[in-house]
Amino acid sequence: MRRRTRSRTNPAGPVVLALAAAGSVLAAPHPAAAAEPSVRPDLRADVNRDGQVDLTGDTDRAGEDGWSVGRGAVHLPNIDDDTRRCPVTGPGGRPLSDAKLASCNDASDTKVNGTADAADLARVRSVPMPDVRSDAKGSLRVTTGAEHTRVFVKRDGKWVLVTSQTRLSAAELRSGAELGVEATDVIRDSAKWDGRAVIRLSVTSAGETTSDSVTLRVAPLLTHHHLQNAQQLMVTKVRGGGEWNEIQRKFVKDLEKEVKAAGITRPLMTFDKYNDIWAQDFVEPAYVSMTGPRGRRQVMRVMLRSAQPDREAGRELFEKVRGRDIGVVQAFDRGEPEDWSLNSMGNLETIPPYTLGDRAYPAGRVIQGWRKDTGQRPSKAVRKLLKSQGMQDPLLLDTSWLGVGHVDEFVQFLPADTPRGWRIGLADPEAGLQLLRDAQRDGHGRTKMFSVPREQGMPAPRETIDEALASRDLVADNQMAAQRIAANLEILKRETGVTDDEIVRVPALYVRERQPVGERDGVSVPRLTRLGADTPLMDRLEKHGQQKWLAEGPRAAAPTVMTSAYIPGAVNGIVVSRDRYLAPRQWGPVIGGKDIFTEAVTAVYQQAGMQVSYLDDWYTYHLGQGEIHCGTNTLRDASAPWWQRRTG
Description:
Blueprint: E1 2-6, E2 17-18, E3 43-45, E4 73-75, H1 98-103, H2 114-118, E5 122-126, E6 137-144, E7 149-155, E8 158-161, H3 170-175, E9 178-183, E10 196-205, E11 208-218, E12 222-223, E13 230-236, H4 243-261, E14 269-271, E15 283-291, E16 297-305, H5 315-321, E17 326-330, E18 348-351, E19 354-356, E20 359-361, E21 365-370, H6 380-388, E22 395-398, E23 411-415, E24 422-428, H7 429-441, H8 465-470, H9 472-496, E25 503-507, E26 510-512, E27 516-520, E28 523-526, H10 536-544, H11 546-552, E29 563-565, E30 574-577, E31 580-584, E32 590-591, E33 594-595, H12 596-607, E34 611-615, E35 632-636
Parallel strand pairs: 4-11, 13-14, 16-17, 21-22, 24-25, 31-34
Antiparallel strand pairs: 1-11, 2-6, 3-5, 5-9, 6-10, 7-8, 7-9, 10-11, 12-15, 13-35, 15-16, 18-21, 19-20, 23-24, 26-29, 27-28, 30-31, 32-33
């Protein structure tokens, strides 16, 4: 946008960022001409997102003053720590506060910390002005978003912070200036800042000032979806001795084998400081990106910490994970949460990209669970942050009927070789009940419901198929779960356009949560597992299970029955590649030498084009009211441009 105004030769005010000539590349001053041409600066940015700032053509001219999902210059929130300069402890090794940990990143200083940090700067350039007078000088002003924007100028190969003491010389105007722009944060509330930074270059010569502006917007913070290939898995590895700890570490080893078998070459990223085994819940891996030089995507991973400040495991994201091209964001609510468990990130999943009518979600769309029966919702601060990105507007699904209340307990999204590119995987309690009824009809009612072996003094479940089906609660609660899932499916179909043919129905069973055989310090186990309150398991659930967190967090009285997985929840697994799926081992009834749930689950996924492997999580995660998805997390490939709609 070009403006021509007459002003004094030194119009810069306190909010003006000016560019200095000190140390600049010098050129011989042009002799004054009798008739000097008008001074018309031309400031340009990478509006078409090809990685180049076009100074000679028009490819970056159209739309330079606006911004849309498909076009407009992008800059990054420079919140990583490329040189790992940020402290993680205070004097004497004392722990830093959460606020202090979060306050340090590459944008918190006024330097460009090496070449990796320079790669995080969006380039803005001025078109060379070879005919300017020798008295010409230039200044920059961030007219929108100045509080969240920092500008550097490149001089003698070094990036120099723009301050009110600097000016752009006639020599720099003639040769053209290269600027680097960073944001100091992600968008948190679009009502306060929508991410835009408008940069104006003003040039004054012979008492006349003209200016030009370009608009950038900070890259949206986006969550991963399952069409992005898995590159690395994250898991907690508990420390210390004891039988349960050994079982958990065996789970980690088995996970590592499965990951390698799926072709993922990067080693597991392990959390080992705070012993919080629910790696899915204290962090949501996300990313920001822009196009860098030569068209290569400049990607920064951003670990979104759960809105659970009392959950210390989130601190390890700053202490261990933050580094080169990896930042961390935390957004906490003021006051007590509506429902603590809803703020876990297992309650945040992402629908893959789709278009429906005039609505497009090229980077996918977030789903979260809420308790419709009580009106409790997940963190307002996180929902506002996600909505403010303008890309993945969160869709709420009803999880009132689940004790933990997470969407990953009943729904997932699977890659598919279809025009849409994905299917919905959905827990199917009616199919689970039918498997039991069919077995009973065929004379196998006395077969044990579970084939899991006794483990180190912990009794295995004893109930039979007959006893399970004789439980009015079990049957009624699964019928209720089926109805709730069906209602959520209608929401997903309405919002995405998915049809019944695109639904993968996975056999499942749920069990009433609040009917324990025994309870100690608020920790309970479902009645039908037949595990006594004095078994060693109770100590482990009290320390590691979701039961611990449910007991600690505020929770309103539920008007409906709450459930958790009875048979390990097969949909609560990991999409490790486009055609490989890792599910929790089912440990269902064995008839004719085969686990009937494993057989049924495998058949369903194979029909959907997925090869299934199984990982035992019975004693580590399942009895703690979670599965392998809850206990792990996944870093995915984010190199594809988030602004391009999927075709086909």
